């Protein structure tokens, strides 16, 4: 009985993805150094290449040029990193990131909910007038035409609506707008330290 037919030539070693990958490492590292010009970045590039290749090994066709496949992965990764780096702002001391401090969002949401409740409690004519002027940006003449009333009537309704909203929201001055004093103090301290 003859031996079963195999595609492996007499004395040839069967393909091993791991073995081929390990054999390509010195060449990959040299290529990475030539691209990045820094040994630490080159090592990161090689590591990323190995991880990607290992994760995609089922897509590699045995019998094709694994070295070329790996070098292509490394080159693509290098240029992807360069594109990402081009979109990033250098900020070694964290100054830019520190200036991105913002007031907590939840207070604004709570204030908006309070405003909606107060707005809903206004008489219909006042609510309509303040929405036309304040939210929709119409001139008094345009709002009067839309509402079918005199300009003076719109002005009066808007004025009464503003007064009532201030009362309902307990707004006494400019300091009552925006973040509370504790939040403002914390964010202002983070800016002052820069």
TrEMBL record:
Domain of life: Bacteria
Keywords for the protein's UniProt record, in alphabetical order: DNA-binding, Sigma factor, Transcription, Transcription regulation
Pfam families noted in UniProt: Sigma70_r2, Sigma70_r4_2
Residue span(s) of domain RNA polymerase sigma factor 70 region 4 type: 116-165
Biological processes, Gene Ontology terms: DNA-templated transcription initiation
rRNA-binding is among the record's keywords: no
InterPro entries: RNA_pol_sigma-70-like, RNA_pol_sigma-70_dom, RNA_pol_sigma70_ECF_CS, RNA_pol_sigma70_r2, RNA_pol_sigma70_r4_t2, RNA_pol_sigma_r2, RNA_pol_sigma_r3/r4-like, WH-like_DNA-bd_sf
MF annotations from Gene Ontology: DNA binding; sigma factor activity
PROSITE patterns with a match to the protein in the record: SIGMA70_ECF
Gene3D superfamilies: 1.10.1740.10, Winged helix-like DNA-binding domain superfamily/Winged helix DNA-binding domain
Domain RNA polymerase sigma-70 region per the UniProt entry, residue ranges: 25-87
Family: Belongs to the sigma-70 factor family. ECF subfamily.
Name by which UniProt lists this protein: RNA polymerase sigma factor
Organism lineage string: Bacteria, Pseudomonadati, Pseudomonadota, Alphaproteobacteria, Hyphomicrobiales
